Amino acid sequence: MDIYFWVFAVMAVGAGVFMISSKDPLPSALGLLTVFIALASLYLHLNAPLVAIFQVTIYAGAILVLVVFVIMLLMTPGERLGEVQRNVSYRIMGAILGLCATTLIGLGLKGVYDLVGERSLPEGFGSPNQFGELFFRNFLLHFEVASVLLLVALIGAIYIAKKKV
Amino acid sequence: MGTVTLTHYILLASVLFGLGIIGFVTRRNALILFMSVELMLNAVNLMLVAFSRFRADLSGQVMVLFIYTVAAAEVAVGLALLISLFRHVRTVDINNFNILKG
User: Fold this and answer.
1) Which pLDDT score is estimated for A133?
2) Are A160 and A82 within one domain?
3) Are residues A76 and A58 in the same domain?
């Protein structure tokens, strides 16, 4: 299924170009979202369903929402947002993104393992079971360090963004 | 077009990483700089997952999870800094961020 790779590769590069060339940060964020979704689709192709799920939930879900919130917070409201919504390229990006997400869901339902076909991989490679086995056995210390890092970032972010420092 | 090999994924990741670098050095909007960094991190993630797939070694996918953690922490702290900075200079143009200038 090489067409699968090419569709999402072209989509990722096109959205990346749109992202860095867009004048306003909000369409730029939409381009970034398209890159995230296209990469999630490629992860499915690479026998990494769990990483694809995390890509959508963490990157497209959490991180991008945070970025968009800050964009809304820092831009002058009203006329800027309306200007963006009237922008044709913004709508085209939205249509591409919707198409991409629909393709992703459709292919996920069809079963990605059927698509990639027979290749010499160990049984259950990339399955959440094997991933969790490796993650919580060999990388337990890293996992704990990462949780401390998240806690520190949480406290730091609240402290820095507070009104009176 | 032939079958998709590791080389294709390496090229794609390199192009995305390059786009991130171009965005980072050419744009003046701090928010777009942030997004360019995210694009570069994603390019690295793609490379890790591709190597993991073609070398049949699951550790690459675990490493991607740690990159997600670091990226989340980076975005949280970075955007907090940006909000804090915005209160002082009322802009996101990095040319105006010169309060540390000697």
Assistant:
1) 82
2) no
3) yes
CB contact under 8 Å between B79 and A142, yes or no, is no
Residue owning tokens 């490629």: A42
- The encoded tokens of residue A56 equal 């959508």
Same domain, A90 and A146: no
CA distance B93 to B102: 19
Residue B96: Cβ-neighbour burial (10 angstroms; 0-12, 13-18, 19+) = middle
Domain span at A131: 127-165
Q: Which residues of B47-58 are buried (b: 16+ CB within 10 A; e: fewer)?
A: bbbbbbbbeeeb
CB of B6 within 8 Å of a chain A CB? The answer is no
Q: Is the CB of A108 inside 8 Å of chain B's CB atoms?
A: no
Per-residue model confidence as pLDDT tens digits over A76-90: 655 566 666 677 777
Domain residues for the domain of B34 are 6-93
Residue of A54, A71, A131 lying closest to B58 (CB–CB):
A131
ipTM confidence: 0.89
What predicted TM-score, i.e. pTM, was given to this entire model?
0.79
Residues A97 and A135 in one domain: no
Chain A residue closest in CA terms to B64: A51
